[in-house]
């Protein structure tokens, strides 16, 4: 028996190749998103570890919290310290200077920046550690500001940062 269908087999093959190509493109998109999520979670873990270490240093040297805030505001002084407090005795202010130098150096190696500010919306003088990476600045922003961790007391969902409240 002769089959009068000519070329239909080729169309079926082309349609199946198109479906296969779409499936492969979908899988590639899922892989890309998974890699993006892995990178984001890795950055968050590193930021959490930096913030946790800094919070412990703040608890130990609570009397110098204003020195920590001042040192973190001066970008030129952040990665240098006048004394190496792991080898010699230091005052509370010198220890704060040393801690900030170590913290900012560790953050810079990871492509992150650090800040310590009063938490927005709190009246009890709590401080917040801001650790940001990417295009985000570790600061509180106003309603029109872009590129900050927060915007008018709310976390900016487009930012790449971590905010940790310390007592």
UniProtKB/TrEMBL annotation:
Residues 29-101 form the Type IV pilin Tt1218-like domain. The keyword Zinc-finger does not apply. This is Type IV pilus modification protein PilV. The gene is pilV. NCBIfam families: type_IV_pilV. It comes from Acinetobacter chinensis. InterPro entries: N_methyl_site (IPR012902), Pilus_4_PilV (IPR013362), Tt1218-like_dom (IPR054402). It comes from the Bacteria. The chain crosses the membrane at residues 7-30. Keywords: Membrane, Transmembrane, Transmembrane helix. It holds the Pfam family N_methyl.
């Amino acid at each position: 028996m002769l089959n009068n269908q000519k070329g239909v087999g080729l169309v079926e093959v082309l349609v199946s190749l198109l479906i296969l190509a779409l499936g492969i493109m979908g899988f590639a998109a899922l892989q890309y998103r998974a890699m993006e999520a892995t990178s984001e979670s890795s950055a968050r873990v590193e930021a959490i570890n930096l913030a946790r270490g800094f919070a412990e240093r703040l608890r130990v040297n609570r009397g110098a919290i204003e020195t920590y805030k001042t040192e973190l505001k001066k970008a030129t002084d952040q990665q240098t310290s006048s004394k190496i407090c792991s080898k010699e005795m230091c005052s509370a202010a010198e220890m704060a200077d040393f801690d900030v130098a170590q913290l900012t150096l560790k953050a810079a190696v990871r492509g992150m920046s650090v800040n310590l500010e009063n938490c927005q919306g709190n009246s009890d003088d709590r401080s917040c550690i801001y650790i940001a990476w990417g295009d985000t600045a570790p600061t509180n922003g106003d309603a029109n500001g872009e590129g900050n961790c927060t915007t008018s007391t709310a976390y900016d969902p487009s930012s790449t940062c971590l905010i940790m409240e310390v007592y």
